[in-house]
Amino acid sequence: MEDNKKKRWYQRIPLWIRIVICVLLAVVIALALYVNSLLDSVTTDFETTNTARGEEIFEGDSDLTSEDSAIEASEIAFEETPEPTEKVVGVVNLLLVGIEALFEDDDSQGRTDSVMIVTLNFDKGTMGVTSLMRDMYVPIPGYLDNRLNASFGMGGIPLLRQTVEQDFGVMLDGVVTVNFSGFQDIIDSMGGIEITLTEDEAYYLNHTNYISKRKNRNVVPGTQILNGNQALGYMRIRYVETADGTRDDFGRTQRQRTLMTAVFDRFKNQSATDLIQTATTMMKYIKTDLSKTEILQYVSDFASIRVDELQTNRLPVNGSFSDETVERNGVKMRVMVPNLLTNARALHDFIYGADPEELRQNYPFGHLDAE
Description:
By secondary structure, the chain is of the alpha/beta class. It has helices at about 1-10, 15-40, 150-170, 180-190, 200-205, 230-235, 250-265, 270-285, 290-305, 340-350, 355-360; strands spanning about 70, 90-100, 110-120, 125-130, 135-140, 145, 175-180, 195, 220-225, 285-290, 310-315, 320-330, 330-340.
């Protein structure tokens, strides 16, 4: 009798509704399988990478001569920094690494062109990106002191990650890498990105190989949509001042943050479903050690907190480093020697966004103003 009632109830549902339900279920299952296959194809643990040389690297600047004064590398001493902070619930720190040449073939070495820490603070509803200047002269675990980006050349992603964690006392939850080709494809998949160029930037991009394809050397001063090839050129400019007068590697990292902000603005109002679809599109252009579950969870959480603005930061912070020329075995290079403790404190302040008393009690570095 009860079975008959259930049957009659089911039969009372119009046929068209049953068909729609079946179609929707099929679409959901197909989408889940598609996402799963994309994530399966991209995830790697980085531990078996063969991009690292394994030996010491000390690459000098070719324009420096014997006449240029320099400090012996062995004379530079760094203060000891505390152990990296334990995992803080509600805060996710991801190392985002842009690499000049990667995944092309088994012998491809590549160099780090950009190193950033992307922070999602779900408790406070904030998102931030910190540029790490590649010419910082820092301690590298198991090797002599060197530029930050040399750690990748000597030990690949695992050593770069270990160096960042050790020198700046922050625990990283994962690593995402993208090469130049992948970066251009990501921007093109978005339909380009809106960037404002100065007159000098536009002229430089149109008259150098920073935009590698000649057909794309047609940018103009002002706000416009750059394709992937043009955006890559813009992000790498070093020898032209930004609109506020910043140049060299400071200007280059500032442009990287400008581009990251433009990307963020494109996606900040997307729904969780749209963000997941966007993320799956980008998966084929990157490598990461994040699990499928973590990727989907972070995307979903990001959509739920509705961040309105991307906060930006740079290490070393102003007033926390000295410009030096260091020499080792007759080889000289220009570097920035940071005060590690000051920069670690600044990074923790930026990431956790707590008041001085809370930082003093809960985090090993304390607040910049809490000595």
